[in-house]
Amino acid sequence: VLRFYRSCLLFAIDDQRIVLPWWMKMLMSDEQCAKYIDGIAVHWYLDFIVPVKVLNEVHKNFGDKIIMNTEASQGDKPWDFVKVQLGSWARAENYANNIIDDLNHWVQGWVEWNLALDMKGGPTWVSNFIDSPIIVNKDKNEFYKQPMFYAIGHFSKFISRGSTRIKLTQTSVVKSVGFKRPDGAVVIVLYNRRNKPVNISIRDPQRGVIGLNLQKQSINTLIFW
Fold first, then answer.
1. If one looks up domain 159-224 in CATH, what number appears?
2. Residues forming CATH 3.20.20.80 domain(s) in the chain
3. Each residue of 145-164: pLDDT tens digit?
4. Position 98 pLDDT exceeds 80
5. Range(s) of the chain covered by CATH 2.60.40.1180
6. What is the reported pTM?
7. 3-class secondary structure for the chain?
């Protein structure tokens, strides 16, 4: 039977960071179990409790395993009384912040749970209504691309498959992550968390220096060859 599934990858955990790294250590201590595990799947829902640096420990112990964020959504918390917030920039910032953190700590992919939902945040058979990057208004026969959609696009559109993360000097104000693409381009995604514009400089030893003005609470992508 296994020969029909050789191209499939099996990811363990598929749960919150809070179970790391101890749950993965337990799984890998079983030789019969360990030989089937290709990667580690994590969710984002309790990331505000568990620091992202726990992923460094996971990578240190299991460096040959892929780490993927396999589920994220917003409006999921009990205190989120308004599930669908059309035009919410705060939720776009939440995604950008989380994706940058994950990519800087060995995560190789990031998945939104539902790319498109209706105006109520469904359909759902268990009434767990949530927000989505695309909201479909079936009554008006139209759909709305939310700020979350474009936040994800800063990464999915410009960081191509096969890219390699490069080291950047981080600041307390601007979060950033950089990659070198297979075509030789360098991609840097920058998130200004402040409620005011910030001036920064990008210094590349081979290409020189460029100055940028990042608007308040903005997500920016820089590409150069």
1. 2.60.40.1180
2. 1-113
3. 999 999 999 999 999 999 99
4. yes
5. 159-224
6. 0.94
7. CHHHHCCCCCEEEEEEHHHCCHHHHHHHCCHHHHCCCCEEEEECCCCCCCCCCHHHHHHHHCCCCEEEEEECCCCCCCCCCCCCCCCCHHHHHHHHHHHHHHHCCCEEEECCCCCEEECCCCCCCCCCCCCCCEEEECCCCEEEECHHHHHHHHHHCCCCCCCEEECCCCCCCEEEEEEECCCCCEEEEEEECCCCCEEEEEEECCCEEEEEEECCCCEEEEEEC
